[in-house]
Amino acid sequence: MKTCHSLPVITLACLLGFLAACDTYTPVPRKYGFHRIDLPAQTAYVRFQNERCPFTFEYPDYGVVTRQASDSCWVDINYPPFDLKWHIAYRDTRAEGRDYNTIFEEYRRLIYQHSKKASRIEPSPISVPAGRGTWFEVYGNVGTPVQGIICDSTGRHVIMVSCYFQTALKNDSLAPVITFMKGEFDHMLRTVEWKAGE
Q1: What is the pLDDT along the chain (198 residues), one digit of tens a residue?
Q2: Contact 192/159 with Cβ under 8 angstroms?
Q3: Residues near 1 by Cβ (< 8 Å), separated by ≥ 6?
Q4: Cβ atoms < 10 Å from Cβ of 10
């Protein structure tokens, strides 16, 4: 009988011990989990212009032009907040003696080399004020989730744009950036303008 009555006393003593231990607890920060990515609330754009390029376009003002080839119209625009780069290449079919379809097929084959790592590749035809082309979305853990190619109405001027991540993060962690940059990429293609007389 004495043990039955002492059971609530022991339970109460244990509870008080636990409560007293909480007062001495020192919080410890958790280890970092996912990479923190802050997306711009609003984007301002600047117009890209280069004497060697027969076109202009708008790109986000947080982009930095890091390479402009002196002998051709090949351009890199880096986006430091996202460890990401746009590589822009220009081809003149008249100067090369080849047609748009030949250049497009070469570009398409390069994109489909990602099939080894990509879960799927979705091409979509696009029509923009500067002309027509194809937008490729590459899904899976690949470094180039978005690529595009457009040409003018004559098929002479061709622009190819690839979006490259320069980080070891997996694409599921980068999903918000990929979605956001698809919008920026789309804006870039829709603001391409060919220079008069080119």
Answers
A1: 455 556 676 776 666 666 665 555 566 665 555 566 778 877 899 999 888 899 999 999 999 998 877 777 889 999 988 888 999 999 999 999 999 999 999 999 999 988 888 889 999 999 999 999 999 999 888 888 899 999 999 999 999 999 888 765 566 677 888 888 889 989 999 999 999 765
A2: yes
A3: none
A4: 10
Identity of the residue numbered 90: Y
Which of 99, 72, 110 shows the shortest CA–CA distance to 158? Answer: 99
Dig out the tokens for 7 from the structure. Answer: 């059971």
What tokens appear for 148 in the block? Answer: 């595009």
Using CA of residue 93, residue 95, residue 98, residue 102, what is the dihedral sign?
negative
The alpha helices in 59-194, defined as continuous H runs, are 93-96, 100-112, 171-190
From the CB of residue 30, how many other CB atoms can be counted at a distance below 10 Å?
Answer: 6
CB atoms within 10 A of CB 174: 21
Dmax over CA atoms of the chain, in Å, equals: 106
Determine the straight-line distance between the first and last CA of the chain, rounded to whole angstroms.
103
